[in-house]
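Review form for a predicted model. The reviewer records the input and the model, then writes brief findings.
Reviewer: anonymous (R2)
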Amino acid sequence: MTDITNTPAAEYDAQLGDYFALLKPRVMQLVVFTAVVGMLAAPVSVHPVIGFASILFVAIGAGASGALNMWWDADIDAVMRRTAKRPIPAGKVQPGEALALGVGLSFLSVMMLALSANLLAAGMLLFTILFYAVFYSMWLKRATPQNIVIGGAAGAFPPVIGWIIATGSFSVEAWLMFALIFMWTPPHFWALALFMRSDYDDANVPMLTVTHGRPSTRRHILAYTVLLVILAVGTGFTAIGGYIYLATAVVLNALFLLGAYRIWQRDEVMAEEDNYAVERKFFRLSLYYLFLHFGAILIEATLRPYGLGGW
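Model under review:
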């Protein structure tokens, strides 16, 4: 981590929106949605007030992770086009403020989730924050080209936490939702890295495109997509699946597999000629992929009490 704390305090002009940006609100949306699905897909109902409060604290915990990540990664964020306008490298928020916000929100979210839900859910939230902020951000991200593969687990825990909020325990179904996000993460980020490679080169981040080259990255995207397709479609035959989920998964995964195959077929000459159009299209599809899968799981869970969802 490069020290960028020498900027005079007078040069910082933080607004409320800048502090909110530290929480990574786009990532928070996915965290909240998958946690809600995990909670509602569970076989135990949760009182609406308790459920709302618990999900709120999960969201705060996700925001805490984002703030800690931005504090630690401020040096590489400053040299990457995609992240240069974040609050710290843009000179709007002091690094120390981001650290204080992240630590404070971490304690608040874990403590309050323990009170609103249960200790196991709070423990999982604490583990998730530490996994993302310490294990991934401070170690894996700059140490190995498998950073995204292993670090992706941090973003995959929210549906497990949601399930635990409702049941107070783990289950196979919760881990299936975890696995869906975990296996989706590498092809999603590697596709981004294909057309944003210069960013990772400039920041000296050992993304797979930097350490093993783009042809290898294309092969990895296809391999992980094949495994993801098997998992995603197979989930349709489990307790959280059903006709609606299975139909959704078949269509989405056919498109996703086709996109990965097209990426695998290309070389850099082809990609540069059309400004990485295929890779960008695959990345955009990946943005909808999880929301639509988890939306289908939510629909199945909503209809199941009426005898309409599931098998």
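Findings: DSSP finds 16 helices and no strands in the chain.
Further findings: Residues 1-7+15-169 form a domain with the Tetracycline Repressor; domain 2 fold (CATH 1.10.357.140).
Recommendation: see findings above.
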